UniProtKB/TrEMBL annotation:
One of its GO terms (molecular function) is metal ion binding. This is Aldehyde oxidoreductase iron-sulfur-binding subunit PaoA. Keywords: 2Fe-2S, Iron, Iron-sulfur, Metal-binding, Oxidoreductase, Periplasm, Signal. It holds the Pfam family Fer2. It catalyses: an aldehyde + A + H2O = a carboxylate + AH2 + H(+). The keyword Metal-binding applies. The keyword Iron-sulfur applies. Its EC number is 1.2.99.6. It comes from Edaphosphingomonas laterariae.
Length: 213
């Protein structure tokens, strides 16, 4: 009778085979990181051009890159803060085509041709935006982490009122809104301050609103 081949494996054989497989996988992944090969499931890169703080910028980005990460990591505009990264705190608020948005919830590739303003584009240490100066006068910050988003939101919010955009605080949404204390607090409610400087923030915004009236 013909002898059957011996297919038995020792524990050592299994361990050696497993180690070789792990090493091969690591080499493949390392090559991908080094740029010598591209994983087949990697998302494509996309070119996006927009204007940021008045300057034309063009980037080649992973299509999953948020506007927040494009601003912070690629353009080094770190004034815009990453807080919750879920659109709940408002620390990442920027102004896009005159409207405030949470940049952590928006993909950079969605903003082809848009005009984006960050806190760096509102004013400089030598020439502050009126809202920035008001925040300083009224101590509208403590740790300062949420402040860039608060200021961008406040600037765009007063423009919303000027354009007649209604809010939940209005009794008659067909009437022209006014920058009352209730309106300001309602419209700024999406910007959280962990330090609790809300009353000072409201005072700063009210001052600028009054100067516009």
């Amino acid at each position: 009778m013909r002898d059957h081949p011996d297919y038995s494996l020792s524990r050592r054989d299994i361990l050696v085979s497993g180690a070789a497989g792990i090493a091969a996988t690591s080499m493949t992944e390392g090559a991908a990181v080094a740029g010598t090969s591209r994983p087949p499931d990697a998302p494509p890169a996309a070119a996006v051009a927009f204007k940021v703080n008045g300057k034309a910028r063009k980037l080649s980005l992973d299509t999953r890159t948020t506007l927040l990460d494009a601003l912070r990591e690629h353009l080094k505009l770190t004034g815009t803060k990453k807080g919750c990264d879920h659109g709940q705190c408002g620390a990442c608020t920027v102004i896009v085509n005159g409207q405030r948005i949470n940049s952590c919830l928006s993909l950079a590739v969605q903003h082809e041709g848009d005009a984006i303003v960050t806190i760096e584009g509102l004013g400089t240490p030598d020439k502050l935006h009126p809202m920035q100066a008001a925040f300083i006068r009224h101590d509208g910050y403590q740790c300062g982490y949420c402040t860039p988003g608060q200021i961008c939101s406040a600037v765009a919010m007063l423009d919303e009122i000027a354009r007649g955009v209604p809010s939940h605080a209005q009794v008659d949404i067909t009437a022209n809104p006014e920058a009352t204390s209730g309106e300001i607090r309602e419209r700024m409610s999406g910007n959280l301050c962990r330090c609790g400087a809300y009353s000072n923030i409201a005072e700063a915004v009210a001052e600028i609103a009054g100067s516009r009236a």
